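Holo prediction. Input below; ligand is pyridoxal-5'-phosphate.
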Amino acid sequence: MIIDLRSDTVTKPTPAMHQAMMQAQVGDDVFGEDPSVINLENKCAALLGMEAAVFCPSGTMTNQIGVKINTQPYDEVICYKGSHIYKYEGGGVAGNSLASVRLLDGDRGRISVSEIEQNINNINDAHLPITSVVSLENTVVREAGSYYTLDQIKSISTFARSKGLKMHLDGARLFNALVETRDNAVEYGKYFDTISICLSKGLGAPVGSVLVCKKELEPKARRMRKAFGGGMRQAGFLAAAASYALDHHVERLKEDHARARVLGKTLANLAWVQSVMPVDTNIVIFSVVNTTTPEKILGQLNEHQIKALKFGAQEIRLVTHLDFTDKMLEKTVEVLTKIKA
Ligand SMILES: *Cc1c(COP(=O)(O)O)cnc(C)c1O
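Structure of the complex:
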C-alpha cells in the first residue's frame, strides 16, 4: 500500500468514473462538436452563475488565459505574494501577458480591500504600470488551504470594480472552500470576470480545468486556448470524468478536510515538529525543528511507503484526497508518531 500525500493531483479515476469516461459521447471539440465537453462547460457556467466556460488541459492554462484576457501588455496584476499564478506557473504572467505583478502580503494569503487600495497605481503617472486586474486564490495553496468567504470576496470585488479593475479567481480548490463556508457557488459569478476551477485536484478527475467567464470574453478565451496549444479534439472522455467528479465528488471533500485535521493534530504533538499551519481544508503544511531536515523525515516516511513533499527550507506538505482512505490515515498517524528525529 503506497500512501501518496504529495498532492491531491495524484488520484486515479474510480471504477464508476472510468465507466462514465468509456461511455462518453465525443466529437472534435476544436470544431465545437464534442457533446461531453459542451455538457461540462454548460454545467460549470451554470454552477458558478456565469454565461460561458472553456475546458482546458490544466489549471495553469485556465489561469494564464484568465490573466491574458483581463490585461493589456504593460499592465499590472495585483495578487498575493505566494499565489500560484506568480510562483508556480513558470513565469507565465510575464511571458504570456507581458504584465508585471504587484505582490501583497495578505492574511494567510487572503488579500484585503485596504491592501489593494494602497497598491493601485495612479493611471496618470507614466512611470507606473496600469493596474488592471485583481487575482484571488481560493483556497490558498501556499497557506495550507486557507479560504475566503463570499462576503470577503464581495467586498473586494465591489471595491475593485469601483476602481475599474477586473477580477480573476484561481479557484483550483474552490469547492474545498465552498464545502466549509456553505456559500452558494452560483453567487461567485457575480464577482468575477473569469474563474478557473480544477477538476484534477481533490475532485479526482484525471485531467482538466475549466475557465468560466463572461459571455463577451468567451471568443477571446477560446482564441487564447488555441494560441497556447490547448485546443483538444475528442476531449469528451476527459470532460465526462470531470462531469462525473462534479456530480459525485464535491460533498466528500469534507472527508478529506477531516482527515487533514487529524494529521494536523497528530503533528502538533510531535517533538520534531516545530509548528503546524492551521488546517482549514485538505492541505497540511508544517515545519520541522532545526535539529533535523525535511529530507530526513521524508526519507523515514518513504521507508514506510508514505510520500510527502518538501515545501520550503524546513517545511513539509501533506495533501489529503479521494484516494487517501481511513486505513491509510491510521497508518500515516502510526508512522508519524514513530519517527525518530
Ligand atoms: C494546481 C493548481 C493550479 C493549476 O495547476 P495545474 O497543475 O496546471 O492544473 C492553479 N492554482 C492553484 C492554487 C493550484 O494549486
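Residues 12-248 form a domain with the Aspartate Aminotransferase; domain 2 fold (CATH 3.40.640.10). That is the main takeaway for now.
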